[in-house]
Amino acid sequence: MTLIDGVDFQRVSADDAAVALPRTRSYENLHVHVDWIRLASRSLEVALGRRVTCAAYASQAGDTSLGRHDDDWDGIIVQLEGAKRWRVWTAPEGGPTEIVTRVGDVLVLTRGVPHDVDTPGRSLHLAFAVTHQPRPVEPPLTRM
């Protein structure tokens, strides 16, 4: 598991994380370990023609992200619990647009778009990362 505290990422064991509040917890590679997320990731890969990974972010009230940053992938954010406040800079000059995602909302963040995040209450969201890598070619099914 990874804990995110302001500008710091720290990998810790689950036991260490129990005493590490308030920090956002990041659960990575869910597209490998959780069946329904694997299915959703593969469906996105087929639709978009690019490799898709997935992580979950669980936050408590007051947790913050890494500050203003951008990612090297297109993000499809799905809010599962609580709410998350996003500040997104869509123009090179000027201030951010504030967006609050609530349960059931989907936010698409294009690669390279600066953003900052904080948590007004508690939050759980999935981040499907649509990479620039082509979708993996799956081997054909063989009959027994």
Question: How is this structure best summarized?
Answer:
It comes from Streptomyces noursei. This protein has 144 residues and is an alpha+beta fold.
Describe this entry's structure for a reader.
By secondary structure, the chain is an alpha+beta fold. It has a single domain (2-134), classed as Sandwich (Jelly Rolls). It has three helices and nine strands, in the order ββαβααββββββ. The chain has helices at 14-17, 30-33, 35-48, and strands at residues 2-5, 8-11, 24-27, 50-59, 74-88, 97-102, 106-109, 115-118, 123-134. Strands 1, 2, 3, 4, 5, 6, 7, 8 and 9 form a nine-stranded antiparallel sheet that branches. 19% of the residues are buried. Mean pLDDT is 83; it is low at 1-7.
What is the end-to-end distance?
Answer: 39 Å
Mean pLDDT: 83
CATH architecture: Sandwich
CATH superfamily: Cupin
Number of domains: 1
Secondary structure tally, helices: 3
Tally of DSSP β-strands: 9
Largest sheet: 9 strands, antiparallel
Q: Please give the CATH class.
A: Mainly Beta
N-to-C SSE string, H for helix and E for strand: EEHEHHEEEEEE
So what's the oligomer here?
single chain
- CA-based gyration radius: 16 Å
According to CATH, the fold-level topology is Jelly Rolls
Globally, the shape reads globular
